[in-house]
């Protein structure tokens, strides 16, 4: 937690609300933003209100179960999703949920943004997973994101929108900004007929830069080249495309012995 006062956090949330609205990432009463004030309370946007016209006094304070502590309006209907982020990942102090059009288009199409395409994204995010659909305002939505929380800070929400988390509300917002730009570039490349992936060696160089030059210490989720997921310190993560899948290494002699045994068993009818 940083040392900002509650008043400063309120101003920060309103500033990000206006940016999200001005970017066209929300319409009408869409989206929600929150900041963790301390271990017992969260400041969040209210439900049923346009993010472009909120004021600091309209924000709601809730406890870590989503119960209202202060405020005249009702808290966001998706506060459960925010609290799940805070409870599951101690480094998270802010959550931004919006519907950036291009990124949401990928979410609706069921396409994760997980290919190794842009150096900046490879270094900063690795990949953006697609969390399965969950009904808004229910436990389904936080449940769908939970399994990606360890390695990721930005998520596509299937048929819904996008979610970003961060150490503060500006970091969460900037990650959403990077997501939408990445989605736009990806879409243009697809429309032009070719998405040119960075080769594995170059990706590994970027992964090394991530730790050695930029000092990013968090777990690296990896990005995908065709069916292979390129992760830090893993030379071959298989061809299934599943992030985190383990591989087995054997020597040439062991491989020859294994193949010989299999062939002999087949010949013997075993």
Keywords:
270 residues, alpha+beta, 15% strand, two-stranded antiparallel ribbon, L-fuculose-1-phosphate Aldolase, eight-stranded mixed β-sheet, single chain, 8 helices, 10 strands
Molecular structure report:
This protein is an alpha+beta fold and 270 residues long. The chain has two domains: 187 residues, 3-Layer(aba) Sandwich (L-fuculose-1-phosphate Aldolase); 72 residues, no CATH class. Helices cover 38% and strands 15% of the residues. The protein has eight helices and ten strands. A hairpin with a 4-residue loop joins β3 and β4. The radius of gyration is 22 Å and the shape is elongated. The chain starts with 5 loop residues before the first helix and ends with a helix. 36% of the residues are buried. About 5% of the residues have low confidence.
Short summary of the structure?
This protein is 38% helix and 15% strand. It is α+β, with helices and mostly antiparallel strands and 270 residues long. Residues 236-248 have low confidence and may be disordered.
Layout of strands and helices, then pairs:
Blueprint: H1 6-22, E1 32-38, E2 41-44, E3 60-63, E4 68-70, H2 79-88, E5 94-98, H3 101-109, H4 119-124, E6 130-131, H5 140-146, E7 154-157, E8 161-166, H6 169-192, H7 200-212, E9 223-225, E10 228-230, H8 252-267
Parallel strand pairs: 6-7
Antiparallel strand pairs: 1-2, 1-5, 2-3, 3-4, 5-8, 7-8, 9-10
The top level CATH class name of the largest domain: Alpha Beta
Summed up, the domain count is 2
Fourth-level CATH superfamily of the largest domain: Class II aldolase/adducin N-terminal domain
Describe the main β-sheet briefly. Answer: 8 strands, mixed
Could you report the average pLDDT, rounded to the nearest whole number?
A: 88
Element-by-element helix/strand order: HEEEEHEHHEHEEHHEEH
Spatial strand arrangement across the major sheet: 4-3-2-1-5-8-7-6
Strand % is 15-25%
Helix content estimate = 25-40%
Uncertain segments of ≥5 residues (pLDDT<50)? 236-248
| Total count of strands | 10
CATH architecture of the largest domain: 3-Layer(aba) Sandwich
Rg, Å, rounded:
22 Å
End-to-end separation in angstroms reads 64 Å
Q: Do you know the CATH topology of the largest domain?
A: L-fuculose-1-phosphate Aldolase
Output the structural class: alpha+beta
**Coarse morphology:** elongated
Question: What is the number of helical segments per DSSP (H or I, 4+ residues)?
Answer: 8
């Amino acid at each position: 937690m940083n040392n900002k006062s509650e008043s400063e956090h309120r101003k920060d949330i309103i500033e990000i609300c206006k940016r999200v609205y001005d970017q066209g990432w929300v319409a009408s009463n869409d989206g929600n933003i929150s900041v963790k004030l301390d271990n017992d309370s969260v400041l969040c946007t209210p439900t049923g209100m346009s993010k472009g016209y909120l004021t600091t006094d309209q924000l709601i304070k809730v406890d870590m179960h989503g119960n209202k502590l202060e405020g005249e309006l009702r808290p966001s209907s998706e506060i459960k999703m925010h609290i799940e982020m805070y409870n599951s990942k101690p480094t998270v102090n802010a959550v931004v949920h919006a519907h950036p059009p291009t990124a949401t288009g990928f979410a609706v199409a069921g396409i994760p943004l997980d290919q190794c395409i842009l150096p900046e994204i490879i270094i900063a995010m690795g990949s953006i997973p697609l969390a399965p659909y969950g009904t808004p305002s229910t436990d389904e939505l936080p449940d769908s994101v939970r399994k990606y929380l360890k390695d990721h800070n930005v998520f596509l929400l299937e048929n819904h929108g996008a979610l970003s988390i961060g150490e503060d509300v500006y970091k969460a917002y900037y990650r959403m900004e990077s997501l939408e730009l990445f989605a736009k570039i990806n879409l243009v490349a697809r429309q032009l007929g070719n998405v040119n992936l960075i080769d594995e060696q170059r990706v590994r160089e970027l992964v090394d830069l991530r730790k050695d030059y930029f000092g990013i210490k968090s777990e690296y989720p990896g990005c995908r080249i065709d069916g292979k997921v390129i992760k830090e310190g893993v030379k071959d993560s298989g061809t299934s495309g599943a992030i985190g899948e383990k591989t087995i290494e054997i020597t040439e002699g062991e491989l020859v012995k294994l193949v010989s045994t299999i062939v002999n068993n087949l010949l013997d009818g075993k």
